[in-house]
Amino acid sequence: MGRRPTIHDVAAEAGVSVSTVSKAVNGRYGIAADTVQRVLDVVERLGYESSLVASSMRSFRTGVIGVLVADFEPFSAEILKGVAQALHSTRYDLLAYSGSRQADSTGWERRSLSRLSGTLIDGAIMVTPTVVSASVDVPIVAIDPHTGRADLPTVESDSYHGSLDAMEYLLGLGHRRIGFLAGRPDLRSAAARDAGYRKSLRDAGIDIDPALVRNGMYLLETARDEARVMLSNPRRPSAVFCANDMSAIALMEVAGELGIRVPDDLSVVGFDDVPEAARVSPGLTTVRQPMRRLGALAAEYVTGLLAGEQPPSLHVQLPTKLVVRGSTAPPPVS
Q1: 277-315 pLDDT tens trace
Q2: Do domains 7-59 and 64-157+291-318 have the same CATH topology?
Q3: Which one of 58, 202, 245, 297 has the fewest beta carbons within 10 angstroms of its own beta carbon?
């Protein structure tokens, strides 16, 4: 047989139905012992056990950790690199899975987990999940969940204090009219960055101008549109803090189109420190969150759970760091 054998080949060779094959190799009740043995003999003879599904049926383990992301964008790409690095020294492989069109709806992770668990993956890491509860029998770790800490292991960055650091830096440069290009309001980390922005202005005795707060939603085109509105304001800001780097880069592009020079006319600060932040010109000043470490720690947690170990802490928050590059300067002299 030149092609990879399928469950239908096994069923035909063993003289049983596909559902019987599934039940036999999954160890489910209701199948006669001699039938189970006959099916497993065929599985072995045809080489069906070489597939991921068959391996899980025979041993109840696939050796695969699934990482569920809403989209393959720079943030999730860095998370995946961290997971891959952590799994390199283990016996586990990595399966990256996106919910595609489902990812815009609440609970898409639950539906995806029900497809993957028990057949393709031994454990799961969910990146910025909208929900963290799921009726599955595999260990789950969440990175930066929408709703914050849950009753399963979670890892996240300290978005609030990272935001305070960004604002303290801009205020220290002398900026007083500071805009904010916000992220998704349903994401707890984005709300924490918003809270840091507002607290910093209040503590500095500066009124918050609603015209300078726009919501980019972490979407490039939306960020561009909102940046254009903000920068077209007759009393435009002298600096803008953006809730993520890609929004900041979009804002810098719009500034260039409007003839606004960065940093001479406008200072820009992002959040994340994705690789693109260092590649743009001028380089983007940003708050670095340890994205690869988030992925690696989540991988360590989920593999530990599979080994019967409990994580040292149910919830971990990693510190951020301000990285100063060329996109910031003191405000222009009026």
Answers
A1: 999 999 999 999 999 999 999 999 999 998 888 888 889
A2: no
A3: 202
